[in-house]
Fold each of these.
Amino acid sequence: MRALRTLIAITLLALSPVAARAEGGTASVPQPDGYRQDNYRSPVPASLTGATVVTADELHRLMETRPIIVIDVLPQPPRPDKLPPETLWRPPPRHNIPGSIWLANTGYGALSLEAENYFRRALERLTLGDKARMLAFYCEAQCWMSWNAAKRALSYGYRHVYWFPGGVHDWTKAGYPTLSAQPVPMQ
């Protein structure tokens, strides 16, 4: 019995924070005071102060029953530096949650002025300026980008922010479909 409990404990540690939370465990990653600045693909906290953490099933249910704006913040890979200019290059395909909006490169810890303005304007357009609209942020599993973006939306005054730390991985694992996506152009 002791061996079984040890195996269960090890398994829970390996699960995403949402899965660990669902099993009654807690993630040991503390929330930073500011934004995560590096090592974005690493274990994330189990919570985000001011936001509601959701699982794939909870997000799916919200999308079916409430007017929620779902935002993917995965960075778009840049064109390789050493690729000759005449060479055709296509970024790898991105599959995201159907109905979501891809605001690429908005989950970094520090945003350029251009990226910050792009993110603010996009949220204003998507919410029609209503900071009470529901916003859900995601990226990949174990990725700080969505945590940063959700935290930033809270700092802008949005009051109903949801964070889906499981990202596309947990979405597809739960059996939900994805669609090929293109990012909203920076304007």
Note: Confidence is low (pLDDT under 50) at residues 1-26.
Amino acid sequence: MKSYTIHFIRNALTDENLEGRYIGHTNVEISDDGKKQLAAMKEELIFPPVEAVFTSPLKRCTQTAEILYPENKAIVIDGFIEYNFGEFENKTAEQLEKYEEFPRWLAGERGVKPPYGESNEEFAKRVCETFEKVAEGLMKTGTTNTAIITHGGVIMTILAAYGIPEYPMHEWITPNGCGFTVKLNPSLWSRAKKFEVFSEFPYEREELPD
């Protein structure tokens, strides 16, 4: 039976990342440093070719896709957009101290959300439903090797929901331009909605998985 290789890749660095801002739906671009960093990684490490590239609609992801996989026409998936931070958007943790919801939201208290934003539960439901539709599409079309270029929060949510080994979200934090390779076995997916987290991504030249 076929297995399906999916590379989850976080968008390249932005100025707002360095400033520690909560950036969700704001359509910021990759910084100059982010472009240089990604180009250097592509030169030194291995980003294997893929059959298809899926991306969040935001520029920081579509630009990352253009740099890493210029030969692929990226397929934009709206459901892979980052968290909707509402009034928390574009603010630092220090600026958010005035919001009584902030520490409760940060602690993951159920049902708490930024004013006019998504709750953690709403975000997870959206992201997971989107991934399940993509996974089913890959299996229907026999597309066995793909990249999903999206945001850190999206990657952490999907891997915490479906990944083996089973780790909490914070264990799946990944640097910009990096991520994880997973192997989706149709039998395991149909029985348990789980996939194997195979390795970190991209690969060292001497560590290319089979």
Note: The chain has a mean pLDDT of 95.
Amino acid sequence: MARAKPCPVSIETLLLAWMFKITGIGSPLITQTIKEFCENARKRLKKSKGYYPKENIRVLWWDVPIAFANLFPWLEKKFGAVTVADFIGRVYTPYVDTTSEETMVRDLSRVHLHVAMGRNTRGPSELVTQEMERLMEQYSPDCMVFTGHNGCKHGSALSRIKKHIIKSHNIPALFLSSDIFDTRTMNEPAIQRELTDFFYMHGFI
């Protein structure tokens, strides 16, 4: 549903769903909460209503969210920039067959192969490039943001390939040099300045 225009669900809701799954898998209460998330999004989708009232910019956030700063509400309120997908909120969870212990262990292993970085870093560069192209087609982003975490050396190594793909799709992209936890690399005000300048430079604001 997050692929729809306007986006009927907040990326924060999807992040919460992922955290609930990690911390309380199997809980009936969490299952019910996730169902309510889904039903609320479906109601907005049927009315062609976005989660945020004024969706001006669709952002594809290529990486995990920055943990020391909650940037998504700021982006929405300041620019109407709605993040339609990131590395955590759209983690695909394969079906877990509960027939036996063997099938559960097998399928839970498959679940972990689909986590944020794991699904891209266990093979050739095509695991990254094919996912990028698919997301650009499915989510109709106006721009992309690459956060460039220090620990994600594989991401930095693929920068030139990523830029080539983005250019072929004519989608503006911002490459930050931030870190998920460490503010010494780039703190919150610096990230906000980079994002503001990027939107201004490309005529989004």
Note: The mean pLDDT is 88.
Amino acid sequence: MQQLHLLSYNIQAGIYTRQYSEYVTKSWKHVLPHRERLHNLSRIASMLHEFDFVGLQEVDAGSLRSGFVDQTEYLAYHARFPYWYKQVNRNLGNLARHSNGVLSRVRPHAITEYKLPGLPGRGAVMVELETTEESVFAVCILHLALGWRARRRQLEYIRELAFHYPYLVLMGDFNCDCDSSALQNLVADTDLRGLDCELKTFPSWRPRRNLDHILVSKSLQIIDARVLDYTLSDHLPLSMKVALPEGVQLAA
């Protein structure tokens, strides 16, 4: 069976946070460039080499605060991913360009952007990979809203997208724990698996909440799922190994 090693990571635009007080004392890093950012991105890139597909949240697509570095492109280059894509969800021009990012070692067949319901600035990107049985393997990277009402609408929107794919991975920063009723409804309605309350990712310096999730179709076998101890953001990265059904391979 063909296996894929997946990673979801909210990198907080390359900002290394060590405690809650730094959201205030180092808030300037969300606006202005600083020399530690590229060093931190390089450390993240060195960790990404073992993965086949990476979904990134809170990536900057090139603005003042990132030194006009497209962080998705930077990570793709330094971690040697041949395919990468950015979805800009909140474009503040030279001040900030909030994005989701995709890194892939498999050539995408199609990529579609979705603007999620609620206030502008939240999005999902669907990456379709062809299989040898002419079906589609899709990976959706998303970053949901902080407010529960908007998040519920966004999960309902994602549920409708999920019905179109026999092999699907949903991953990203859901901004809600596994006990969220809206998230549980999504899992129940779509038969997705992988919701694990033990995989706590936030805050990175003392993880107490599982805001980040990787959910997969029941047709995919989950081999391993774990939180990685890389405190390079305010979230920890979440990884999962999955296997396609016997006889199904991703097309070259």
Note: The helical segments are 22-25, 36-47, 71-78, 148-162, 181-190.
